[in-house]
User: Which sequence fits this backbone?
């Protein structure tokens, strides 16, 4: 996922969070100005607050899961990069050693002549 995709996703999450917050405030204001008995009004407020809380918890769980997935992906990519680097270094070291051995062998042969 590119930087711009993550940023767009973060902006979308922020917008969704603000929308939920605004909806809760609007619903609360509507309840407070509605002509109801105090007991009924308190029950309506409790029901809506509980629903908003549940929705916020669900969004938080989704965000946590997505963050964990991204972290796992980064860990995997980093491990792959380290493994590839090790393989490249080992291959290069083997080639250098082979050439050094060849040069030493040729030097020994030349010295024997």
Assistant:
């Amino acid at each position: 996922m590119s930087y711009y995709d993550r940023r767009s996703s973060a902006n979308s999450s922020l917008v969704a969070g603000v929308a939920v917050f605004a909806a809760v405030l609007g619903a609360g204001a509507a309840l407070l100005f509605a002509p109801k008995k105090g007991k009924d009004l308190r029950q309506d407020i409790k029901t809506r607050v509980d629903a908003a809380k549940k929705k916020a918890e669900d969004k938080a769980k989704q965000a946590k899961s997505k963050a964990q997935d991204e972290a796992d992906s980064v860990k995997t990519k980093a491990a792959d990069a380290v493994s590839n680097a090790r393989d490249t270094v080992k291959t290069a070291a083997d080639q250098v050693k082979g050439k050094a051995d060849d040069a030493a062998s040729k030097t020994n042969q030349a010295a024997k002549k």
Q: What stands out?
A: The helical segments are 3-33, 38-112. The two ends are 64 Å apart (CA to CA).
